[in-house]
Amino acid sequence: MHMKKLISLLLVLALTLALSVPAFAGGGTAVPGETRTIGYYGYIDNEGGLWLWGPNTDGSAGQDPNVVTVVEKPTKVMDHVVSFARCNSATIVLKDDGSVWTFGLDYARGVYPYKVSKNYAYYKSVTGHEPVKVLDNCVAVAVGNLGQFGALGADGSLYGWGYTHMHGCGAAYGDPGITEDYFDREHGIGDVIKPYKILSDVQWFNMGAYNGLAVKKDGTVWYWGGDFFYEKNSNGGDTQPPVQLSGESVNNIKSAFLFNEGAYIIKTDGSLWRWGGMNNGKPINYKNPAKIGENVAMMASDTRGDDLLLLKPDGNLFAEGKWLAENVQWIAHAFTVGALELGGASQFSLSHQSFYVLKNDGTLYLGKPVYGSDGSKSYSLEYVASNVALSGKPLSSIQAKAKNVGGFSDVTESDWFADPVLWAVNQNITTGTSATTFTPGRDCSVAEILTFLWRAKGKPAPTIANPFTDVPAGQYYTDAAIWAYEQRLVEGATFGGSAPCTRAMAVTYLWKLAGSPGTGDHAYYTSDVPVSIKDPVTWAIDQNITTGVSKNPNGSFNFAPNVTCTRGHIVTFLYRAYANQ
Prior knowledge:
Largest sheet: 4 strands, antiparallel
CATH class of the largest domain: Mainly Beta
CATH topology of the largest domain: Methylamine Dehydrogenase, Chain H
Number of helices: 8
Oligomer: single chain
CATH architecture of the largest domain: 7 Propeller
Structural class: alpha+beta
């Protein structure tokens, strides 16, 4: 990945903001330098891959909407992604080089909704599923659920574009300073069609359906959009473009979650407040907010502001006062506008109460309400994916890729297997899976590891006839298989070269080639190591070839003998065994 430029920009920001940047922002809040890796039908994996599924209106799931209206399962659509946000019809992405990309319904890249366009043919000539770059040098992104886009530049400039109803994107036609070129009157578009700078010196921000909120570096709080809680408490009369809020209620804000007609605010002391709606028959404005919770680290809500998820600092998740899950790291609502039908028979039955839960181990779950026959409601968690990058962490938590190693595009200096791969290439032990890839995460087969070992030993010529019925002449592993038989690494009439190589097999091969040395101390053993491999495992640990997969408090190791080795693991074992010989 190309992280260096963005990280340098973030360092400047961090020095400028010092301790004023929230250490743990909530839900939809877009904060410089923080990843947001789960959201509306999407997640980012640990390698920076963006996976999307669900409604594909105007291509918002990254697929051609003329071909598929609903994407049934997570599908990878982009690489080098560090943060994203998504609504029903559009997705905005921040890549590791600071560039901002969108797909789906976004006027900035020429995709217009036919219902508001005077030229339906023009709309249909453009599909929105191909990502298009909109901005550079940015550090945070967000999108409201009706297509109000926001992007924060590294210099603190906040840009808004898209749907302008009630100033939802922070600007509208007729505002002072905004010119005709920010609109497309020819095609009947009254919304902002390209990024417009709405504020400077911004620290973090959020976009709602008809509103937005930002906190500047000086701590001042700014709001734009429908007047649901500003002054009049009307049913959505416009405010002016961004206006500063004042008073005790806007002090010490840590994060904000905007819903259709208001906002939920988390203060630095963990208290949760509501702006907007009614309280005991009286309208709630921001100067007289309603306090509704304590000890809250993060919250999420549906767009109506009705169904709240509260995440406590200890990782426990609650809804309607009921405990739902523990070890939760991040939460996001799965649905924003209630039931949705797409493409005739294709239908999503998720309600606006559905949500996503990211646990500390990187597993993602879908939470859904379950209703009993007596009308009671509980929740269930359904597994969605693993290997999900943890949200709210520095951008560098998504693998920061350095210079490529060995000519392979998938191996860089920062990888733990980089030195072993480079050594293996230089020793002619491997040439990779292609001229430009090593595929370190792919399972290693028996044929591969024994070929690597044969090459590491100088590629000795066979001295016996081929004993195997399943090893044809002329394969890359033919001589290696015969050599392995001679060395008593394998036996029998079948070789089974395509079978996966386990950790137990790998250390046993190495141990046999070392002369099967005896070991008297079995203190390293744990219950997961059978008697048959106690000597190979102990020897491998003594030789620093492996330290197991984890260490217990008593000093013993868990080895996981039946786990399949990847190509990255195998060359690392060989490197530790032979590099210094």
